[in-house]
Design goal:
The complex is a heterodimer of chains A (178) and B (422). Chain A is 42% helix and 1% strand. By secondary structure, chain A is mainly alpha-helical. With 422 residues, chain B is mainly beta. Chain B is built from four helices and 18 strands. Chain B has a 16-stranded antiparallel β-barrel. The radius of gyration of chain B is 21 Å and the shape is globular. The chains are: A mainly alpha (178), B mainly beta (422). Chains A and B meet through helix 1, helix 4, strand 1 and helix 7 of A and helix 1, strand 1, strand 2, helix 3 and strand 9 of B. Strand 1 of chain A pairs antiparallel with strand 9 of chain B, so a sheet runs across the interface.
């Protein structure tokens, strides 16, 4: 019985990939009835998360783009499509202009000009500041000299080392018993 | 021998899958072990204040008194050891590999249910003790958010996050020196768990998240001195800032400490304090803060009581204060509270029924919209069903969230997680 525990463990630890991603970009498209001309994807060319987040990976603490910050102030919280609907209605009614470019946010979204929405013009912001309200007032993660993992090589290498060690351990244990 | 090779190959392949599919979060920390008379933490954990890599003794206790027994008085042998005993590690070396996965269904009030899969932890921990000197650390991988259910552990990142291929995270790493005749003192320097409150596995608990003292990513760089005595234990830490975030203006510096008295082996009563300063407050965590300097002060009273072996009660109440004024011309400082009441009922060795209640209000002194109280109710079942593996199911109802915790809406969540370690 005990011999099978490592095997059982390995099976149980295999996780399914994320079975759902944030619904918010799709909710925005649906709520504002967005249909883009010129072949652009209505789900913002698969970069919809960057309307609010630093990158399309999303994540806690990464809502740092102007529209996302304003949406949070209007009560949007994780997982809550209804709160997003309400906030979008309010933004539309009030003509919210989170990035201070003189164009209402919902107008930019409806016209599929979402990349411009990410560019911040408030407080002297420029197109080169990553869209941050104030680049010096946003938290970044990783120590100051840390690199970005920009290829799968490291994760795969780590997986190989771990699995190799596991296999070696099992072989050793079997040999000991033999 | 052919069978051995095939098994090894299969396990290796599955492990690769696990590694690739496995977003990072916390390790052990079972404050309810007081039911067995273990009032302190250093007998089972390398960290004298709990959580993280297990000692050899702790591994033994996991087998003998924590997990479900299938044979009466069975000798666990080396099953509890690293890699199920496949390696005979020298006494000076501790190794531990942790993996934890969470499947979560979130049901916001009035909105459709959503299913998520998070890889909570994939860490390798180690400690080398040479004489009175110790080197201790963990390193892990967190996959990127959208593709693989990762993206966690931001505040413990060694590499930049977010990124398209995940990140390397390190929750703890420190050098230590055992001091005293019985090594009752431990002096440490590095990235450490912040000594404050009840060190519990449930990092989203308000008492941990709003005070930023969870064992997931709440660690800070600094220097600490811990003491473990028969009736008293405690730790004091000089906090030098979390260098896994930047720019420097956001790093909190100051100090924290806790002390716990154990008048009996079934009762532990403690107090904690934390005072920090940062040049810029984390308005991304708490929207009522402004991007300006902040002093943050938290004070807690906590208790762990086991009136009967089957039952353990954990309680903590925190007073929260920060020096900023409310936006909109407010005149008063932020003053709030958070509380936790958790009950652990061991139905049978290895099977735990859990219930918890949390309350948070960050602005109890206000007479405006900021004065809102958030309440959560937890219920769960935890099954330590096999050596090195446990399965846990939780149901949570929350009327909202708190700063630093996942910003969820009022509603329910069903969580199922499996944790394994080698």
């Amino acid at each position: 019985m005990m011999r099978s525990w490592p095997f059982v463990l390995s099976i149980l630890m295999v996780a399914a990939p994320a079975s759902a991603t944030s619904e918010f970009p799709k909710t925005i498209v649906t709520h504002l009835a967005i249909t883009c001309d010129g072949g652009a994807s209505p789900i913002f060319d698969k970069q919809g998360c960057t309307i609010c987040h630093l990158t399309n990976n999303g994540g806690l603490g990464t809502v740092q783009h102007p529209f996302g910050i304003e949406m949070r102030k209007l009560g949007v919280t994780q997982f809550n499509d209804n709160a997003l609907d309400t906030a979008l209605d309010q933004a539309q009614t009030e003509g919210l202009d989170s990035n201070c470019d003189g164009i209402a946010d919902t107008t930019q979204l409806s016209s599929c000009d979402w990349p411009s929405l990410v560019v911040n013009h408030c407080d002297g912001g420029t197109a080169n500041d990553g869209g941050l309200i104030n680049p010096t007032e946003n938290v970044l993660y990783g120590c100051s000299t840390s690199p970005v993992i920009d290829s799968p090589a490291l994760p795969v290498f780590m997986a190989c080392v771990l699995s190799g060690t596991l296999a070696l351990a099992i072989v050793r244990k079997r040999r000991k018993r033999a | 021998m052919g069978l051995v090779r095939k098994t090894a190959a299969l396990v290796a392949a599955l492990s690769v899958l696990a590694c690739l599919m496995l977003a990072s979060r916390p390790a052990f920390a079972f404050p309810w072990m007081i039911r067995e008379g273990y009032t302190g933490c250093n007998t089972c954990h390398a960290d004298p204040s709990g959580a993280g890599i297990l000692t050899q003794y702790g591994r033994g206790m996991e087998e003998v008194i924590l997990r479900m027994p299938y044979k009466k008085d069975a000798d666990p042998g080396k099953t509890g050891n690293f890699f199920f005993g496949a390696f005979d590690l020298p006494d000076q070396l501790l190794l531990q590999t942790d993996a934890r996965n969470l499947v979560m269904t979130v049901i916001p009030n009035g909105s459709p249910a959503q299913l998520y899969d998070y890889v909570m932890q994939l860490d390798q921990s180690a400690q080398l003790k040479l004489g009175r000197f110790r080197m201790n650390g963990s390193i892990g991988y967190t996959p990127p958010t959208q593709e693989w259910g990762g993206g966690g552990a931001l505040a413990a990142s060694l590499t930049d996050q977010p990124s398209s291929w995940g990140a390397i995270v390190a929750r703890q790493y420190w050098l230590g020196l055992d001091i005293g005749k019985d090594e009752e003192f431990l002096l440490r320097a590095g990235r450490l768990n912040v000594p404050y409150g009840i060190r519990t596995l449930e990092h989203p608990f308000f008492v941990r998240s709003v005070t930023r003292t969870d064992s997931n990513t709440g660690q800070e760089h600094g220097v600490s001195l811990a003491y473990t005595g028969e009736k008293v234990r405690g730790e004091v830490m000089a906090i030098l800032g979390n260098y896994a975030i930047r720019p420097d203006a956001f790093r909190e510096r100051g100090g924290s400490a806790f002390v716990e008295l154990t008048p009996s082996t079934k009762v532990a009563i403690g107090a904690s304090a934390l005072i920090t300063h940062a040049d810029v407050a984390r308005s991304d965590l708490e929207p009522s803060l402004s991007a300006s300097p902040i002093f943050r002060q938290d004070y807690a009273l906590h208790a762990r009581i086991s009136p009967a072996k089957a039952l353990v009660i954990l309680a903590e109440v925190d007073a929260l204060y920060n020096s900023q004024q409310l936006p909109g011309g407010g005149t008063s400082n932020h003053f709030g509270m958070a509380s936790l009441l958790q009950v652990d009922l061991q139905l049978y060795q290895g099977i735990h029924l859990l219930a918890a209640n949390e309350i948070y209000n960050g602005h109890i002194a206000e007479k405006n919209a900021y004065n809102t109280t958030t309440v959560t109710a937890w219920g769960g079942l935890w099954w330590f069903f096999a050596p090195h593996v446990d399965l846990r199911v939780d149901f949570v109802y929350a009327t909202g969230s708190a700063p630093g915790s996942t910003p969820t809406s009022p509603g329910s969540a069903l969580l199922a997680q499996i944790h394994g370690y080698l």
